[in-house]
């Protein structure tokens, strides 16, 4: 029999015969006791031998880990039971007592007990804390082969070659050994009486049941982890299942199949399965409920002796003649696929479910895949086709089958698929909207099938192909054991090939440009044309991966989540307690499926990889953001930055002067380097600085460095080359001081100073040289004096012919005054951003204050807090002019006519819009400007339409797109809708740009910004634009209508306020009348209902203006209002000062029309007060008020509507 | 055998023509073709040239080769019409339509000319004679859409799907109808057809990217639309002036829909393609607005 496809070997060891196995409950370890007397401790995940324990004499058969302590116990053919510490790696003590081979040893799950079974026919319980034998159970009359504690109850089950299985009750023993002090006399009496002694007078452990049924010796017996079931293995080649109740126990059934002695058996910890092993070299898996064989696994030469199950995870180990194997029964990777915000996956019950990432919610089962493959085998892969809402599932059962199923529209519970199309093949993936590829390894053939499951094309893949994956639209990725190939289905040819061995999974990036190829220990990132971008190796197995939106790959190993950037930089994101399969990464959340097929969300800190990514992409703004908002400092980041060639950025993080100096030199930031060099003041640093500065041409720094280093020669030469003669002269003097003739000579030479040279040569008695120098420079007098001094005559001296004396060139430009054009220091954008950030902030505060020049430091940045001041006006409007929607009828009639006139063609979508909606904006979008204007006139009394022209055209222009059609023909016109999902042509409506959200979040803020920074002209335009945008607009709910009304009133108030202030500024302050008007306007500026922060600006301006003009009463009232509003402490402080001054004589010097106690509004045309109750007229759209004489004119605020015109109210929403 | 079928020799240039990859049509090597297909390939090349606005070049090479066959005459008619010799083109076409109405090339090319001349009825009656020509189906669909007869277009596509499923031309027709119809047809059919075309290496072109961008725009997936449009506008050999102007028009709409005004694309479009439908449309509408607003001004003045 072949190895079953779903038994997955995870680890194998080679050794002598393995007789006992124990899993560590937490760590990836197993203990193996060998026939050769050795005990091995393996890490089965890494495949390494951790330790060996050799103290037993002869074979070791029993072995067990303690559940919590670092202990294990072993029992051997030397009759000994040994307790070991794996930390100190030695045997702690030995329990002696058995008189023959010890077969099995087990720890109790909570009490400090060890249970042993022995060929001396006894079963014994030992206390390992006080190292004593506490109970000996006799009864078996042949070797006791196995004895185990019940996982919860005070029971023991044992198997013996006497053909029986016995269940023992040890509750007496527990009572005797638990808290004996608290036991009353009555208890003791009761126990003594109730417990009936066995034939040896032993009341601690009594035989509860004797199970007879095997007709040969029984080798092994196990309890079920939760149910009252027992399974046993015997030399009669049978595996028997027993059930027990409180009072009796009986045989349930027998599993027949082993054709040699069955040596061990156990229950699957989570599933309804029995596993057994035997000397017939097989591992067999049985269905617990049907007692039929599910699968079996056969080894060529090795008899199996023992089997063990991991208590938590889905792992088993079996010991045989030549070692141990650790295996899983099935793949635990849930089949899944992602589409946009949805994850489709198959859960443990083989139901297809859908998980919504944005809502983080799971659907109820969509579909049942129970019938796919075999019941014990989960599907392997799932491919999703969003166009058809279909899934393609493969299962490894029956050598590979696939099924194509349509998902139901709604999750209506686990329905069985009705229209499933099936076929054979190990891999099946969608390759296009209506095509999928099926691969079957046996025939080495890929079929391209359409949705009716009929093959349209057949492809012969390269020999040895093991799997196929989606390869981008119209392409496949084919993997063999050594290479991956990209195959174009349409052209039927291989496009590219890359040597990547053992690829098991392919994960495409969200933009489809990159793919990650996962092998067991490698991640290879390739482009969509299969060019390798990077590769990395992991020692631990790689399980899964997913791309985040920014193009970082997060992958999981058995115990970590790690990241890798495209360039291969990688690191650890977090550790994992249990293995998970990552399916998606979104911001700080990693979505994954665990081994129970449950979606989970793990939080991760993306800072490190985001930062590195930003660095690679040179996205300095983001880096800045990250630096500011998170604590990302540390040696690792600094060295990373330096290594990657970003010393200038690393510089921002470092404090240590030495490192700073190094980094500054590296990035050419001389300022910092100088600063650090001064701080450290070491010659070595100055030398390096000098060299670097010279390379930059920064001679001032070079000069400093040379001075520090006292390198006079170099300094002189530097001065020469910069043409700094005064400093050269000083150098000459210094040289004289130092008595350094060489230097003096040098400097004199540089200065072209022949005199000094001659004098110096004379001083040094170098008369010939002095003479020659003087002679060549034509200094005849000097020549004479030298001749006299030396007693020579001119004739005696023969000189070579000399040309003209050379003079050093004279500097033309004083280059020493400034640095030479300095090599541009690599001031990165990043640095600029860091600096600019600070500058920007300052500018901002400046802007906020400087416009209102007499206010300093106004705190305006309070942020927009809406005050819904004019909300109540809405009702009044509607009630006053309830003119209904009758206009609609009229409009409709118009269009019917138009349509019938033109019989050949149908009505365009634009016509539909106008027909479907009573909203002016929709008519504009339809291009029906006439009707739109009619509507606006009725709704808001609009008459002056010119200002609305940009808005009309904007809306109209956003409604059509032009799609290239047949070659040679004009494009096909299509109509953009705001009702994307709508199917009913009677309800489709056009897109209207600048929706309410945009206006609230962009335009309104822009207006506030203009107010804050005192750009009132811009602000006025912005608010008027807001008004026009809202006048012709459409919203999607009643809620939004309210919001729109609120914004209209806000915009109106700001428009009014800004116009008042702009009028004041336009006014000259000369003359009494103008001053009075100015004072009034500044007072009125405080009336409109602005945001509090903005009103404070207005108040403060008015207060100071009034105060400066001795209108102390007004100033006092303004200061009181400022104080009442609160906010910026500085402003309040100022107001308090003004207040205290004004209170001394609260009189107005100039009498103005401003009654601080009266309630009034401002007329938007004349900017004079309208006291409450006096006659007025209103703009029907924005609600601005006017003196009644302005009735019939155009509204000054919106510029469109007629003041006081009858109107039904703006209509933005058609319910 | 149909030379345009999936196994035919002319599949590549034919699909390229319909995917707007005109330059690759022109580059197609005709030497290895059988003689019958060589003429057909030449016609495809002429059509690509005309689509690229090189009608005069076509005319000159046609007069040289003494256009006698009905196929070449119809090419000439199209070339004449597109180089602004409209009356000449229409007269050349009259007799051809009468005599050679059964010829597939004549149907498509003359149909195109008639559609250009907005003689839709004539075009449709000519096209109705086709015998399994998908090009005729596609042209018919576009004419129905141009005359706002979505129902007829829909019927045409459904009928064609029965006998030619999964052909590029049928897919295109389906996508066009889906775009006009909207709703689920848009989000499923059109979107997937275009995204498939745009992402498959062999069919990805400025034109298919533009179409993808437009569907995304209609679906209000603005970020994706912006990426697709930018990609379609990036310089490439497929970016013909007409595709570029359509892409610019779409960019204008996108910019408007995202609340950013008309954006730079509008200026560019007005400057470079003053003849584009959108530019002319907006000009006209501007005038219409002034006219409509003028009526109100008159009323106000009168009051």
Automatic annotation (TrEMBL), chain A:
GO cellular component, one term: Golgi membrane
Annotated keywords: Cytoplasm, Cytoplasmic vesicle, ER-Golgi transport, Golgi apparatus, Membrane, Protein transport, Repeat, Transport, WD repeat
Subcellular location: Cytoplasm; Golgi apparatus membrane; Cytoplasmic vesicle, COPI-coated vesicle membrane
Record-annotated COPA/B TPR domain positions: 622-776
COPA/B second beta-propeller domain span: 350-594
Biological-process GO terms, alphabetical: endoplasmic reticulum to Golgi vesicle-mediated transport; intra-Golgi vesicle-mediated transport; intracellular protein transport; retrograde vesicle-mediated transport, Golgi to endoplasmic reticulum
Membrane association type: Peripheral membrane protein
Superkingdom of origin: Eukaryota
Domain called Coatomer alpha subunit C-terminal: residue spans: 859-1213
Subunit (UniProt): Oligomeric complex that consists of at least the alpha, beta, beta', gamma, delta, epsilon and zeta subunits.
GTP-binding in keyword set: no
GO molecular function, a single term: structural molecule activity
WD repeat residues: 53-94, 95-136, 137-178, 211-252, 255-296
Role of this protein: The coatomer is a cytosolic protein complex that binds to dilysine motifs and reversibly associates with Golgi non-clathrin-coated vesicles, which further mediate biosynthetic protein transport from the ER, via the Golgi up to the trans Golgi network.
Entry protein name: Coatomer subunit alpha
UniProtKB/TrEMBL annotation, chain B:
GO biological process, one term: intra-Golgi vesicle-mediated transport
Keywords: Cytoplasm, Cytoplasmic vesicle, ER-Golgi transport, Golgi apparatus, Membrane, Protein transport, Transport
Name this protein carries in UniProt: Coatomer subunit epsilon
Family, as annotated: Belongs to the COPE family.
Keyword Chloroplast: no
MF terms (GO), sorted A to Z: structural molecule activity
Organism of origin: Ramalina farinacea
Annotated signal peptide: none
Membrane topology according to the record: Peripheral membrane protein
InterPro entries recorded: Coatomer_esu, TPR-like_helical_dom_sf
Domain of life: Eukaryota
Entry GO terms, CC: COPI vesicle coat; Golgi membrane
Subcellular localization(s) per the UniProt record: Cytoplasmic vesicle, COPI-coated vesicle membrane; Golgi apparatus membrane
Reported function: The coatomer is a cytosolic protein complex that binds to dilysine motifs and reversibly associates with Golgi non-clathrin-coated vesicles, which further mediate biosynthetic protein transport from the ER, via the Golgi up to the trans Golgi network. The coatomer complex is required for budding from Golgi membranes, and is essential for the retrograde Golgi-to-ER transport of dilysine-tagged proteins.
Keyword Protein transport (UniProt): yes
């Amino acid at each position: 029999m072949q190895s079953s496809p779903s038994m997955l070997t995870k680890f194998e060891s080679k050794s002598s015969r393995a007789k006992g196995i124990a899993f560590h409950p937490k760590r990836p370890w197993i203990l193996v006791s060998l026939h050769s007397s050795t005990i091995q401790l393996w890490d089965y995940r890494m495949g390494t031998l951790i330790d060996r324990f050799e103290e037993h004499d002869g074979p070791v058969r029993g072995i067990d880990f303690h559940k919590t302590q670092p202990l294990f116990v072993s029992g051997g053919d030397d009759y000994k039971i040994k307790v070991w510490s794996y930390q100190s790696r030695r045997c702690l003590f030995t329990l002696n007592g058995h008189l023959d081979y010890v077969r099995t040893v087990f720890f109790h799950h909570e009490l400090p007990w060890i249970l042993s079974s022995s060929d001396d026919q006894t079963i014994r319980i030992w206390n390992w804390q006080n190292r004593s034998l506490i109970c000996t159970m006799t009864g078996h009359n042949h070797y006791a082969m196995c004895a185990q504690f019940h996982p919860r109850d005070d029971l023991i089950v044992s198997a013996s070659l006497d053909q029986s299985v016995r269940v023992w009750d040890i509750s007496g023993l527990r009572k005797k050994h638990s808290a004996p002090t608290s036991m009353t006399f009555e208890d003791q009496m009761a126990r003594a009486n109730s417990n009936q002694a066995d034939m040896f007078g032993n009341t601690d452990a009594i035989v509860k049941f004797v199970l007879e049924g095997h007709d040969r010796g029984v080798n092994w017996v196990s309890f079920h982890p939760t149910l009252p079931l027992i399974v046993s293995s015997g030399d009669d080649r049978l595996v028997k299942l027993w059930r027990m109740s409180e009072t009796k126990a009986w045989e349930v059934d027998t599993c027949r199949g082993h054709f040699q002695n069955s040596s061990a058996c156990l229950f699957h910890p989570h599933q309804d399965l029995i596993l057994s092993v035997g000397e017939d070299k097989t591992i067999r898996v049985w269905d617990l409920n049907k007692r039929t064989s599910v699968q079996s696994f056969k080894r060529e030469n090795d008899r199996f002796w023992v089997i063990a199950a991991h208590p938590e995870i889905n792992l088993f180990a079996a010991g045989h003649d030549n070692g141990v194997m650790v295996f899983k029964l099935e793949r635990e990777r849930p089949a899944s696929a992602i589409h946009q915000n949805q994850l489709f996956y198959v859960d443990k019950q083989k139901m297809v479910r859908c998980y919504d990432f944005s809502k983080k919610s799971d659907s109820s089962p969509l579909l049942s895949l129970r019938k796919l493959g075999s019941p014990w085998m989960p599907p392997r892969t799932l491919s999703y086709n969003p166009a058809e809402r279909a899934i393609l599932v493969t299962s490894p059962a029956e050598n590979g089958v696939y099924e194509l199923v349509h998902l139901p529209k709604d999750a209506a519970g686990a329905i069985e698929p009705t229209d499933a199309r099936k076929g054979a093949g190990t891999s099946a993936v969608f390759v296009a909207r209506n095509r999928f590829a099926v691969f079957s390894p046996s025939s080495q053939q890929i079929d391209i099938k359409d949705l009716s499951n009929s093959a349209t094309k057949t492809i012969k893949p390269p020999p040895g192909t093991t799997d196929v994956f989606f390869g981008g639209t119209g392409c496949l990725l084919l993997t063999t054991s050594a290479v991956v190939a990209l195959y174009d289905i349409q052209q039927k040819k291989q496009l590219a090939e890359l040597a990547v061995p053992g690829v098991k999974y392919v994960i495409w990036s969200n933009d489809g440009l990159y793919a990650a190829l996962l092998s067991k220990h490698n991640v290879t990132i390739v482009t969509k044309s299969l060019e390798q971008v990077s590769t990395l190796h992991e020692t631990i197995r790689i399980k899964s991966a997913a791309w985040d939106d920014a193009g970082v790959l997060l992958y999981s190993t058995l115990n970590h989540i790690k990241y890798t950037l495209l360039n291969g930089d990688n690191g650890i994101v977090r550790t994992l307690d249990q293995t998970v399969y990552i399916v998606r990464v979104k911001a700080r959340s990693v979505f994954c499926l665990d081994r129970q097929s449950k979606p989970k969300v793990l939080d991760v800190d993306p800072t490190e990889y985001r930062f590195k990514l930003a660095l690679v992409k040179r996205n300095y703004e983001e880096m800045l953001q990250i630096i500011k908002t998170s604590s990302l400092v540390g040696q690792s980041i600094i060295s990373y930055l330096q290594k990657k060639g970003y010393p200038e950025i690393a510089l921002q993080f470092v404090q240590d002067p030495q490192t700073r100096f190094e980094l500054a030199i590296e990035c050419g930031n001389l300022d910092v380097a100088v600063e650090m060099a001064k701080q450290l003041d070491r010659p070595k640093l100055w030398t390096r600085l000098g060299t670097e500065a010279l390379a930059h041409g920064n001679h001032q720094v070079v000069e400093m460095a040379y001075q520090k280093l006292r390198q006079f020669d170099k300094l002189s030469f530097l001065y020469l080359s910069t043409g700094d003669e005064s400093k050269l002269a000083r150098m000459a003097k210094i040289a004289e001081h130092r008595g350094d003739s060489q230097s003096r000579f040098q400097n004199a030479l540089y200065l072209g100073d022949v005199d000094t040279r001659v004098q110096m040569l004379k001083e040094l008695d170098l008369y010939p040289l002095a003479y020659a120098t003087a002679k060549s420079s034509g200094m005849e007098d000097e020549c004479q004096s030298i001749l006299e001094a030396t007693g020579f005559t001119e004739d005696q001296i023969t000189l070579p012919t000399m040309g003209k004396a050379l003079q050093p060139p004279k500097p033309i430009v004083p280059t020493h005054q400034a640095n030479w054009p300095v090599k541009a220091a690599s001031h990165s954008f990043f640095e600029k951003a860091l600096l600019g950030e600070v500058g920007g902030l300052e500018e901002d505060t400046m802007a906020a204050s400087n416009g209102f020049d007499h206010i300093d430091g106004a705190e305006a940045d309070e942020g927009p807090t809406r005050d819904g001041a004019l909300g109540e006006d809405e009702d009044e409007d509607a009630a006053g002019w309830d003119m209904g929607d009758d206009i609609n009828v009229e409009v409709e009639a118009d269009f019917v006519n138009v349509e019938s006139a033109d019989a050949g063609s149908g009505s365009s979508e634009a016509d539909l819009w106008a027909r479907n909606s009573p909203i002016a904006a929709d008519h504009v979008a339809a291009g029906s400007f006439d009707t739109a204007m009619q509507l606006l006139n009725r709704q808001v009394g609009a008459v002056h339409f010119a200002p609305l022209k940009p808005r009309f055209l904007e809306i109209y222009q956003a409604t059509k797109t032009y799609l290239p059609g047949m070659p040679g023909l004009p494009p096909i016109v299509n109509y953009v809708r705001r009702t994307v999902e709508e199917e009913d042509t009677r309800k489709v409506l056009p897109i209207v740009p600048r929706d309410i959200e945009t206006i609230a979040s962009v335009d309104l803020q822009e207006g506030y910004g203009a107010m804050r920074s005192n750009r009132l002209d811009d602000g006025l335009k912005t608010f008027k634009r807001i008004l026009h945008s809202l006048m012709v607009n459409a919203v999607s709910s009643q809620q939004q209508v309210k919001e729109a009304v609120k914004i209209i009133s806000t915009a109106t108030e700001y428009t009014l306020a800004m116009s008042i202030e702009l009028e004041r500024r336009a006014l000259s302050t000369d003359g009494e009348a103008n001053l009075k008007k100015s004072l009034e306007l500044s007072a009125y500026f405080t009336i409109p209902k602005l945001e509090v922060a903005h009103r404070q600006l207005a108040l403060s301006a008015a207060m100071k203006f009034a105060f400066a003009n001795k209108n102390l009463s007004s100033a006092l009232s303004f200061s009181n209002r400022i104080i009442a509003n609160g906010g910026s402490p500085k402003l309040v402080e100022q107001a308090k000062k003004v207040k205290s001054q004004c209170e001394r004589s609260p009189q107005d010097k100039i009498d103005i029309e401003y009654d601080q106690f009266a309630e009034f509004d401002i007329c938007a045309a004349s900017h004079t007060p309208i006291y409450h109750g006096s006659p007025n007229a209103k703009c029907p759209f924005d609600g601005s008020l006017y003196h009644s004489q302005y009735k019939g004119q155009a509204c000054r605020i919106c510029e469109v509507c007629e003041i006081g015109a009858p109107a039904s109210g703006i209509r933005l929403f058609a319910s | 055998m149909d030379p345009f079928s999936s196994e035919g020799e002319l599949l590549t240039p034919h699909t390229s023509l319909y995917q707007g990859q005109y330059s690759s049509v022109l580059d197609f090597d005709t030497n290895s073709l059988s003689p019958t297909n060589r003429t057909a390939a030449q016609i495809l090349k002429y059509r690509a040239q005309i689509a690229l606005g090189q009608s005069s070049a076509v005319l000159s090479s046609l007069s040289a080769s003494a256009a006698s066959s009905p196929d070449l005459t119809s090419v000439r008619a199209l070339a004449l019409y597109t180089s602004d010799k409209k009356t000449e083109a229409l007269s050349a076409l009259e007799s051809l339509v009468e005599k050679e109405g059964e010829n597939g090339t004549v149907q498509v090319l003359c149909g195109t000319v008639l559609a250009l001349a907005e003689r839709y009825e004539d075009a449709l009656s000519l096209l109705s004679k086709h015998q399994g020509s998908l090009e005729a189906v596609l042209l018919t669909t576009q004419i129905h859409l141009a005359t706002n007869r979505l129902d007829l277009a829909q019927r045409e596509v459904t009928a064609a799907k029965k006998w030619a499923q999964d052909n590029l031309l049928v897919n295109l027709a389906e996508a066009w109808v889906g775009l006009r119809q909207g709703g689920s047809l848009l989000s499923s059919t059109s979107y997937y057809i275009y995204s498939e075309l745009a992402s498959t290496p062999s069919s990805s072109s400025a034109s298919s990217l533009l179409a993808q961008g437009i569907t995304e725009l209609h679906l209000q997936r603005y970020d994706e639309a912006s990426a697709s449009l930018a990609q379609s506008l990036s310089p490439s050999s497929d970016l013909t002036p007409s595709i570029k102007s359509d892409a610019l028009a779409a960019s204008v709409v996108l910019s408007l829909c995202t609340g950013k005004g008309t954006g730079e694309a509008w200026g560019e479009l007005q400057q470079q393609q003053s003849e584009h439908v959108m530019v002319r449309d907006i000009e006209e509408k501007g005038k219409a607005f002034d006219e409509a607003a003028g009526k109100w001004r008159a009323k106000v003045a009168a009051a």
